[in-house]
Amino acid sequence: MAVGTAKTLEKLMSFFVSLMGFIFILTMILVGPNYIEVFNGFIPTNIPEGSGVNIIALIGTTLIGINILMHATTTAEKWQGSEHLEDANFDIYFNVGIGTIITFAIVITSGTVLYGSGTTVDTPLVFSQMLEPVLGSYAKIIGNVGIAAAGLSSAIATPLILKTVLARLFRWEANGTKARITGGSAVIFGSIFAAIGTNPTQMIVFASAISGLFLPIVAILIMIAANNKKLLQEYRNNIFQNILGGIATLITLALGINSLLNFFENLTSL
């Protein structure tokens, strides 16, 4: 197994995401949320003031634009030809579904143990600490393993994704010096911020919000490619798929614009 390849990344991500998913789903079940209120929460009645950045960050950390590009790369390496289309579709539905379930589990668990408690979330470890009344001595073990798996899945994936995607974009040698420096820069950048004592929660929200802001651009490009008759022929999007894709793109675009407007409004008020 060659280090730094898309196949390596796929195997590592499968392990960490599986571990993370198991931990967070188990935790959600153990904290015993009010499922009636959970289902009612799927129908948004209002968006709290100032929550735009957190909403776009949540979307950005669930559907990460660069991960979509990386998935296209790994898919191209794994399958070629229309005979593999069914397998490729299953792979997409399964991976996106797992990611969505993990996000639901984290949000539901956090809402159950944190909402109304007055706790300020200034470190990811708050998640483990708030589980103690429910899980007792197992709270730190379960919570910290989940957080570690989430962190490692990003720490390992980001440099490899950055290296692979930019190497493809600029036609560099996949494991050449330029590609390796690019991947290593992500590690150095993150290490510097960690070393100078930057608030990890703010870093996570900021990075996820940036990802969310770029997501509409990736979504628009995907919609253009998915409707390219010359490229996809009979496999291009149908009307129903275009409606769903258009709605999703408009929602992320509206949230992104709202976050930017709030950012500039707060900037001018300083």
TrEMBL record:
**What keywords are annotated for this sequence in UniProt?**
Membrane, Transmembrane, Transmembrane helix, Transport
Can you name a GO cellular component term?
plasma membrane
- Please list every transmembrane segment annotated in the UniProt record, as residue ranges: 12-32, 52-72, 92-117, 137-161, 181-198, 204-227, 239-261
Any Pfam family from its record, for instance, is Nramp
A single BP term in Gene Ontology: iron ion transmembrane transport
Q: Where does the record place it?
A: Membrane
A molecular function (GO) term:
cadmium ion transmembrane transporter activity
Which residue spans adopt a coiled-coil conformation according to this UniProt entry?
A: none
InterPro entries, sorted: NRAMP_fam
What coarse category fits the chief subcellular location reported for this protein? membrane
Membrane topology per the entry is: Multi-pass membrane protein
The name of this protein is Nramp family transporter
